[in-house]
Amino acid sequence: MYASREDIGYDFGDDSKVGTKPVKPNPNIDGGWAWMIVFSSFLVHILIMGSQMALGILNMEWLEEFNQSRGLTAWVSSLSMGITLIVGPFIGLFIGMCGCRRTAIMGGMLNSLGWILSAYASDVHYLFFTFGVTAGIGSGMVYLPAVVMVGQYFQKRRALAQGLSTTGTGFGAFLMTALMKYLCIEFGWRNTMFIQGAISLNLCVCGALMRPLSPKDIVSEKYVLRSNSEGNHAKALSHSAETLKSRGVLSEELGKKETANEEMLDSVQHIETGSKSQSERSLYGLSILKTVSQMMVTVRKGFAIWYSSYFGAASLFTNRVFVAFIIWALFAYSSFVIPFIHLPEIVKQYNLPSQNNIFPLTSIIAIVHIFGKVILGIISDLPCISTWNVFLMANFTLVTCILTLPLMQTYVSLAVVCALIGFSSGYFSLMPVVTEDLVGTKHLANAYGIIICANGISALFGPPFAGWIYDITHKYDFSFYISGLLYMVGIIFLFIQPCIKKKQTREKPAEGAEV
């Protein structure tokens, strides 16, 4: 197994511009303002993920209000949760052009607009567009920057920082469920959505806290990483050279485009300087032209970087381990969501409603899930522990619990399995860390956007697929078995690809010796 980016996957970072002289580390990296970033991300998880996990309250109100089938009404919540994650790759484009702060602020306003418009819904189909699509896209525009910013501000304690920030999901599930239940009783579901829209405006405040790192800070961060991993970096030197060479053509093209754009800006500035004697109207028009030109430069540069990450010579998809990670993500999230949906029915089948009402099994998963994220994050940050190995062990534990859960027929046994599910699913806090180890900080936004997009597809189609299996077999057992087996396939991909890469790395020196 492998513990670093150089060993797990390919190093996409370009360190050619990093000097050899030591640079004083920024105090805001792993400390200072970095903890404000964690706090901002924590609030984002409460307001977005917590609210989505509490949609069961509103779903009951929609069923009573619109008298539609449960399947059709459930698509409102599925669309909101799925689109939040599916739009990840496109949000990466926004981050490249506008930065995390502006993207999050715009997303907060769009999310709030979706909640408010949904308060005036006349039917379920209206909610598909206002809540499922509008609020879902807004949530995605805030969620991805919240994760990326934590990855940028932390290096030594990334796993712990991500674990602390993502615990907002568990806290949000409790807080938002109680809040929505109270608001629906006191004011009705329409006013509840209107109030929730006002609360969601706090996402703009969270976005404002996402202060970007200056170029000097990024250079400092790169030097620290380089000095800490200088020995391991030699292992991937040959591949890094190939990667940099493949990106040479793209860099030259970008350089030519930037030179042309700079010449155009210089000409605009020259015209603006020479037109001082003209009227204020002409100066105003030139300033607008200059602003538009600068925006065009930013958009073209951001799009070029985004395009190269997905389709260029140095595409993320050339990293085989990262591709295996995507395949794993397609099956992983549904295995975590399905127990939340079907556990109440399983409890009813086994005649355990009285015990479950005292302490619901889903609450056990949610509570232990909070501690699992923090504990797994602390373990992963230990110097002698590999984050990759912790991630795989947690996945093996979770898939084992998913496959054995239908075999448990008492409340105590179900509670134990649910506690293990909640703890092992804490690996979600390690996903950004593993992604950054695979592709580097520079490509984290685009790479993690792809991963959460795969998770979104899993969340969107996983639960309906499980319901379809139940309609055919009239048993919930097969839903767990099939989802667990598909999940196991994804884990096997994660296990095989690093082994293949390790074997290829060992064979290359041998071939060179023979020559």
Automatic annotation (TrEMBL):
UniProt keyword list:
Membrane, Transmembrane, Transmembrane helix
GO cellular component labels: membrane
Q: Which GO terms describe its molecular function?
A: monocarboxylic acid transmembrane transporter activity
Q: Where are the transmembrane segments?
A: 33-55, 75-96, 127-148, 160-180, 321-343, 358-376, 388-408, 414-435, 447-466, 478-496
Organism's domain of life?
Answer: Eukaryota
According to its record, how does it sit in the membrane?
A: Multi-pass membrane protein
Occurrences of domain Major facilitator superfamily (MFS) profile (ranges):
37-502
Location comes to:
Membrane
Pfam families for the chain = MFS_1
Name by which UniProt lists this protein:
MOT14 protein
Organism of origin is: Eubucco bourcierii
Q: Which gene encodes it?
A: Slc16a14
